[in-house]
DNA sequence: CACAAAAACAGAATTGACTCAATTTTAGAA
DNA sequence: TTCTAAAATTGAGTCAATTCTGTTTTTGTG
């Protein structure tokens, strides 16, 4: 329990992630060479590959940290949602979007998304899919909450609606990170406009 | 006009695409080495890079062919849609999905999607975004058509609705190609279920 | 028909992610 | 403390995409 080996392992994990995060930000994903990450983390190239299957998995670990923070922040909204369907959705989605560029640059997001579709069975590919599912699930939880409060019709298919809202938001976010000039307020406004159709359909 | 050089160029383009398409199918995208494509097309490696910026652009050219066929097939549905909102959407989306695996394997789709987010400014990245936009536009055209016929309420925001439906379908399709076991009928059923919420909201 | 400039081609050299066999370190039994 | 097996580390080597620099082909002009 907490032997030398375990401590060293955790320490190396941390050093690799910190080195990679710094270099990804400075030089971009492609620009951050494994050799440089290894040097900065003070481990060898081989050790990095002992900890992560490939370069993408290193980025994946960083993305997971960010998305988990977002999920945590979202819980508050689900617990006490604004007393209006449109605002409730906008608030939750706002948290997702505003948090999203905290640690990750658009370029890092692009790479992460690309890797997750390119290698869906790699550790990160699976983790990413699971994160998407958690976000979908959180939106569904909000809808269920709104149904309980009596703001959303009880006969609405919450699961399908959660998927619809998440999928739309996610695709909009993908397009957003693909264009460097795209701005957060415009993204949120576009999503609000799309959701308005749904809100009209589901509000009591 | 149509000099030797232009003819040779077109011919080499064709040979490269044909060689690449065959090898991508046989060996997968990663498995198809540029050297092998060059050999099969009877050009040198350098020539391939003279015609395409990178390996992804070769795949991109093939994807564009497929999506353009799909767009063409969709025109018929927009011109004469089924006399029911749900069926109209299902028919158009059905055409997209059923065609999708005609020339391209799931693995090729994964790679193509990954490249388009990874390199949004490359020739293919831009072309792919434009294709997505065309599909969105076609769905919007269908909605407009249905509004004209009197099947969809006139006060519905057609542009936002088109985006919502396309984005949801596209994300479902991405998840579909990420899982090799996923089957087309299940995909279509899931999308129908999601769209049902919308249909209820917009049908006259 | 020459011939010079422009365009296209060829393939060797470069580059960078990833592998693997050899070496070092750790754990824990005697 | 000493020793051995297991675990972890190392970095030189491999492989394949992409680049680069000379060479060849085409074009159009005199």
TrEMBL record, chains A, B:
This is TetR/AcrR family transcriptional regulator. Keywords: DNA-binding. Residues 33-52 bind DNA. GO terms for molecular function: DNA-binding transcription factor activity; transcription cis-regulatory region binding. The lineage of its organism: Bacteria, Pseudomonadati, Pseudomonadota, Alphaproteobacteria, Hyphomicrobiales. PROSITE patterns: HTH_TETR_2. The keyword DNA-binding applies. Residues 10-70 form the HTH tetR-type domain. PANTHER family: HTH-TYPE TRANSCRIPTIONAL REGULATOR PKSA, HTH-TYPE TRANSCRIPTIONAL REGULATOR RUTR. It comes from the Bacteria. It comes from Mesorhizobium intechi.
């Amino acid at each position: 329990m907490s032997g030398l080996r375990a401590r060293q392992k955790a320490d190396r994990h941390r050093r690799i992630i910190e080195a990679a995060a710094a270099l990804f930000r400075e030089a971009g994903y492609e620009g951050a060479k494994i050799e440089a990450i290894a040097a900065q983390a003070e481990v060898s190239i081989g050790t990095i590959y002992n900890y992560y299957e490939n370069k993408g998995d290193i980025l994946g670990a960083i993305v997971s940290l960010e998305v988990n923070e977002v999920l945590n922040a979202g819980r508050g909204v689900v617990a006490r949602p604004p007393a209006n369907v449109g605002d409730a959705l906008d608030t939750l989605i706002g948290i997702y979007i505003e948090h999203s560029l905290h640690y990750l640059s658009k370029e890092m997001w692009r790479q992460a998304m690309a890797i997750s579709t390119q290698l869906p069975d790699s550790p990160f590919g699976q983790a990413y899919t699971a994160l998407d599912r958690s976000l979908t699930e959180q939106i569904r939880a909000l809808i269920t909450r709104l149904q309980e409060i009596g703001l959303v019709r009880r006969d609405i298919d919450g699961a399908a609606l959660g998927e619809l809202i998440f999928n739309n938001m996610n695709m909009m976010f993908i397009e957003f990170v693909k264009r460097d000039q795209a701005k957060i307020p415009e993204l949120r406004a576009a999503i609000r406009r799309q959701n308005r159709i749904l809100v009209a359909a589901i509000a009591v």
